[in-house]
C-alpha cells in the first residue's frame, strides 16, 4: 500500500475526476478512494470490510458491481463520515486529497440534480423531491389569493361601490356587506342610515367616501348622498382575506 504521494506520477484531482460519474450526492465509491490515496482497490476493500465487521461504518454494507473495461469489480459507496474512517491510516497528503475532493463535490452539486448511483441515494432523492414539491405546492397555495386579487384588480378602474366590488370578488352583495360589517370595515350610524367606513379603513386607503347622485327621473328628483367606495387597494385586500372563506 502506497502511503506517500510522489509529484512525478500523481495526476491532479481535476484531471483524474473532472468527468467522474462514480460519486453521488451523498457517497464516494471505494474505487475513487483508492485512486485518491494511491492504493490498491483490494486493500481499500479490505479496510472497509474490517471496519464493517467492527460495526464502525454506517454506510450501506451491500456492494455493487462496477465495470472497469475488464472484469467487473465489487465497489462500496461510503458516506463522507465513513470515508474519513477508511483513510485514517493514510498520509496527511492523501487525507487532504480526499477532503479536497469532498469539498469539490459539495460545491459542484449545489443547485444540480445528479443521477443516484445506488438504491439508498435514489430513495433519498425521491424524498428530497417530494419535500421540494410539497414546499412549492404550499407556496402556490399561499400566493393564489394574491394572484387572483391582481387579476380582479386589473379589471378595476378607480374606486367602486360595494355592490360592484362584490361582483369583482365573485360573491353576493348582501354577503359582502355583512362581511364588511362583521369585520369592522363599515357601520351604520342608525338602523336604516347609509353605510359609513371605519376611520382606520379610510386611513389605510382601503375605502373612501364619495358624493354620488341617486334617484331617477328629472334633475329635481335626484339627490346627492355620501357613499362608501372600495379602492383598488381595498379590492386586493378583500380578495386575499375573503379567498377560501365560505361566505
Short overview:
This protein is an alpha+beta fold and 247 residues long. 49% of the residues lie in helices and 14% in strands. The protein folds into 2 domains: 105 residues, no CATH class; 106 residues, no CATH class.
Can you describe this structure?
The structure is a single chain. With 247 residues, this protein is α+β, with helices and mostly antiparallel strands. It folds into two domains: 13-117, no CATH class; 137-242, no CATH class. It is 49% helix and 14% strand. A three-stranded antiparallel beta sheet has the order 5-9-8. β6 and β7 (195-197) form a beta hairpin. It is rod-shaped.
Q: How would the global form be characterised? A: rod-shaped
Mean pLDDT: 78
What is the spatial order of strands in the main beta sheet?
5-9-8
**SSE pattern, N- to C-terminal:** HEHHEEEHHHEHHEEHEEH
Number of domains: 2
Assign a percent range to the helix content: 40-55%
| Strand elements, count | 9
